[in-house]
Each structure stands twice: as structure tokens, then as C-alpha cells.
Amino acid sequence: MASPKKRLQGLVAATITPMTEHGEINFSVIGQYVDYLVEEQGVRNIFVNGTTGEGLSLSVSERRQVAEEWVTKGRNKLDQVVIHVGALSLKESQELAKHAAEIGADGIAVIAPFFLKPWNKDVLIDFLKEVAAAAPAQPFYYYHIPALTGVTIRAEELLDGIQEKIPSFQGLKFSDTNLLDFGQCVDQNRQRQLAFLFGVDEFCIQRFINFVVKLENFLKLKVSRNQSSAGTTNFPFPH
């Protein structure tokens, strides 16, 4: 069974693919990007060529070059570099998986094929199994993003028995708003040491906004009570 150097956890940055004004990949800034993530943001895990990186809009050759650059520039700086290798073509996905293993990536991830879609769990697992088999020593992650793929097979259903068919399976990136499904994934797989990455940034932002609003209301209430008990003069609470 594939085993990463350490369990994938904490913040994992979904990297953009930097471009020049002429639409060419700007490889020269990726080293600076690595340093920014590590030194300024404290982030040491990345997810390359995913949705944020527009991986499916790049050619296979470009995806290979981007992966190579991130792995090279991240060596001895990043903890884990996970490369998304999903594609409509099984052969292309297998080629990218093999390449990720050859360049020393720490894991690979795959979305569901979204043109001729898998119609049930078993068909989807068969596709994922074929990709994983191209790089059997690589930790393998399923990239669950039904809003883009149109494949609505629940992640919790997919996890049932998947490691028996894909021994390298290590977890999933869950980019969906169905929190019940995500919660069931976590709750029903606590003993399996899988990684569950939540990828809907908007939910995280909304939770932060809610926290700020609640904190402001709490402080307003506290100030009001203190003023009432001490008989002090009112002062405006900053917004």
C-alpha cells in the first residue's frame, strides 16, 4: 500500500498556473511562488494542475512542465506536492500519473471523467483504478467536484471498499457543498487514516465572516453592559 512520507493534512494550497500576457506559462515565477507560500503564508503542501491551476485547459506537455517546475522548486521547501492528473482520456491520465511518479511528486489526484460520465460507483472506481495502476507506489486521491464534472456519486458511497480495489488510495479532495456527505466521509472512516481535504473556499470565507459578525455583536453587548453598570459615557464602536 502506498504510504506518504507523512500524512497529508493542514492547509493545502491549490496553486494557480502563472501566465504571461501572451498566454504562455510563466515558469520563472514559480520559485518565488513557493517561497511566498512557505515564508509568508506558512503553507508547505500544494495541489498542482487542479481547477484553480486550470490544469484541464493546459496541454499534456504543459501540465508535465508545470508539475516538474513545482516539484523542482519545492524540493527541500515543501512537504508534499500533489499533482492532479485527471483527464478525459484514460491514456493521458495514466501518462500524467507515470510522469508524476518519475519526477518525485508526493501524490496524484484524479477527477471523475466528465464527458462520458460513469453512471455508478463501480464504473467510477474502475476508471480510478486504471489511473492508479499506472503509478502504484504513488499515494492516490480522488478529486470530488461534482459541480464541474456532473458526476454526483456521493463520496461517502465511493469510499466503501475502495482501498480493496485501489491499495494506494489515501483520501479525497472534497469540493462540494454537500456537508452531510463530507461529514459522513469523515465520521465513517475515522479508523482508516485517510486524508479529507475540504475544497470549497467560499464556505471557509463565510464561516470567517460569521465569526467576525458574532464577535462584533458580542463586543458590542459587552461594552453596553459595562457602560450600564459603570455609568460611563457612551463611545462609538468602530465598524
Automatic annotation (TrEMBL):
Q: Which GO terms describe its molecular function?
A: N-acetylneuraminate lyase activity
Cell compartments where the protein resides = Cytoplasm
Indicate the quaternary assembly. Answer: Homotetramer.
Positions of transmembrane segments = none
**What EC number(s) is this enzyme filed under?**
4.1.3.3
Q: What organism is this sequence from? A: Rhinolophus ferrumequinum (Greater horseshoe bat)
> Which keywords does the record carry?
Carbohydrate metabolism, Cytoplasm, Lyase, Pyruvate, Schiff base
Query: What is this protein's name?
Result: N-acetylneuraminate lyase
Q: Which InterPro entries match?
A: Aldolase_TIM (IPR013785), DapA-like (IPR002220)
Pathway per its UniProt entry is: Amino-sugar metabolism; N-acetylneuraminate degradation
Which family is this sequence assigned to?
Answer: Belongs to the DapA family. NanA subfamily.
One GO location term (cellular component): cytoplasm
Which enzyme type, at the first EC level?
lyase
Show the PANTHER family listed in the entry. Answer: DIHYDRODIPICOLINATE SYNTHASE (PTHR12128), N-ACETYLNEURAMINATE LYASE (PTHR12128:SF21)
What is the reaction catalyzed?
A: aceneuramate = aldehydo-N-acetyl-D-mannosamine + pyruvate
Signal peptide boundaries: none
